[in-house]
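Per-record layout

source: Arctia plantaginis
name: Protein-lysine N-methyltransferase APLA_LOCUS7302
length: 228
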Amino acid sequence: MGTTLLLDITVSTMEDTELDPSELGTHDYWQKAYKKEIENYNEHGDPGDVWFGEDSAQRVINWICDCGVKKDVGIIDIGCGNGYTLTELAKEGFTQLLGIDYCEEAILLAKNVSQADFSQIRYQVFNITEDSVEELGKFGIVHDKGTYDAIGLNPEDPKTHREKYINQVTQLLDDDGMFIITSCNWTEDELIKHFSEKMKLKRVIPTPQFKFGGKVGSVVSSVVFIKK
């Protein structure tokens, strides 16, 4: 199902630096990308790319299934794209699922791919850095795979957008809720630092590692936070 979509990976340090700007951080890029994916789906039944690969998504899905939450826990997927994570969670029996994306074309694709078979999934066009999260309610699990990366690649004031994102995500969480984020642009330590004012680390989900130049690293980082 689909192929791996890789972001521009920028090596960053623990200093307060930003990622190099990229078109991957713009709404125009994703609008065009999802228009093409809608065409591919309509013509060939291909649901499109899965960010960082299906293996990366499945590790998080497996962790959610095994972490002890009830199947009726509220789960929101920020930047849901084609809805892959939500459809897989629906197959596992989860019943309260919401996908949001600021790209209307992504929501249309997700609905076409999954909503006919999975009525327990709702989709909504929503901009996490601009719209009010109060209308969405509270969730036991807030999930993000790649959206925080895209925000960090925004050519226009990414730091302000990242800070708004962090505040918004915190408001979405139930008091005992969990925020699960997967990134290929930020390391585990950087993610922990970015979210440390509002959240504390619960768990790092193990991901495959590589060794280069005597140093060990990961292609992606998956981290679970809870509210302070």
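summary: The longest helix spans residues 27-44. The radius of gyration is 17 Å.
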